[in-house]
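Bug report

Summary: structure tokens for MFS transporter differ between web form and batch submission.
Environment: batch mode, default settings.
Steps: 1) Submit the sequence below via batch. 2) Compare with the web form result.

Sequence submitted:
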Amino acid sequence: MGETAHVDSTDLGAPKVNPAATPPEAPQPPTVDSGGGSFAPLRLPLFRDRWIASTVSSVGTWMQDTAGTWLMTALTTSPLLIALMQTAASLPVLFLGLLAGATADIYDRRRLLIFWQAWMLVSVGILTILTFFGVMSPWTLLGLTFLLNIGSSMNNPAWQAIVPELVPREDLPAAVTLNAASNNIARAVGPALGGLMVAVFTHAVIGAAWVFAFNAASFAGVIWILWQWHRQPIYKSALPAERIAGSVRSGLRFLRYSPTLQGSLLRAFLFAFFVSAVWSLLALVAKKDLKQGAMGYGILNGCLGIGAVVAATTLGKIRKKISADKLLLFTSCYYIVALLVLGWLKMPAIVIITLLGAGFCWTSTMSTLNVSVQLSVPAWVYARALGAYLMTFQGGLALGSILWGAIAEHTSLRVAFTCAAALFAVSIPFTQRIHILKGELPDLTPFKRKRPAPAYFAAVDEEDGPVRISIEYCVTAESYPEFTHAIHRLESVRLRDGAVRWAVYRDAARPDHLNETFVMESWLDYLRSRERTTASDAELIEKVWKLHSGDGPPKVTHQIWVAEVPVAEAVVSVKS
């Protein structure tokens, strides 16, 4: 089947549902200015209740992280098994981050959050019961920690993506800042509370069990808040939702053709990979080098949190004075020094001061990279990009923890920290070539169509495909270099939005006639690609079309693959 239409550039790039309908406006990432002040979102009951429940739950999570790691030191002396606690916490995101983002982009986020919060409650509940009854083993602890963090990895992209549904757009920056402050407050007090609760009991096992029980109760509070929430999505496509496999594929396709997003993810992975030595081996530093107990370990973890809180309150001013690249260079160099301090110095005061700075650099780095991810993706793939970010970041933590734990197991803590610092230093000249938040950012707001789509669009079956879109241009010799430069920039736009193939050809008989062709898997995918066009994409399309010199606009043809019809069936059809 082949259909031909003459349409303008707004038709090619605009969102489309049907000839008579215009899709609703999509939620956008935070803007720079906040409308109602830093604490304005807390005046909204729904956001305030969610924020309080999230803070309490985060405190419980950090308490559990400290108690669980310390419990492992009581169950085994193996540095590798102790380091694997960090791996068990991080590895699920490595495998499930993109899947979590895909589900959050296509399913009801409220129901997803309730399900995964319940999953985590049950996991921690089982862990609590087994610990109270004294039947916990190192591998059981690792397994249940892994199950708990499966729920966490599936929960996190949806949890971050619901913020635009809770506050007005002008208060989004303040809401994002408050969420970061919530996590940093929990990071500052949670480890110390976890260590204190373990320390007040005669046996570390009983203290850890009570920490686990508190964490389970905190999940119940979050579930109650979500259960009371009557969700009203601010954006819902009129097209059928993507299936999970298709959603994952489209997310991967976008990542493949988005160099800016790739750079942010690569830097997040490498940073997390090297500094994971701090998180995975800190318990051993407290126990073996500093001769401290659970309370001492909690204080060391709390120092990281305090430094993170300071970063959250001052980072806005710092970003106004130095570029993101310089900030990331400073934090990387500081962590190299911090790794050497932890490996070679055994003076608690110096270690504490070093960890305060490490917490500051940790939050500064991860916040900068997180912002760069959010500003490099449009709304339709927002949760999938966040899932990919969490996947690469936690993957770096998980793989790094395995490596540094194995080195410490076979050599010493000093060797492990020194290796991490040396390799981190070697990586800096390469990572500095990947620029973050440099130059003018593209306009990723959805492009609003100006003219209706051709009438025959509504008559085509959504499952038909593959679909080939062919656009014929006439270009003068003077405009030829500029046109070829612009049209090849358009390739990544087509592929990011769903095309599986793209090419541009010149007519051998008429060199001034060029043909752009791209293929979609189905007509429905083509319609989705029209909804995904951003203002920046539309500007590039418009530039290409303006270089067309023929009579009227470029000729656009939509061609659908034709399946073979058996001759016998065709004869019967004709006779009937």
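Above is the batch result. After comparison, the two runs are identical; trailing whitespace caused the diff. DSSP finds 19 helices and five strands in the chain. The first helix runs from residue 9 to 13.
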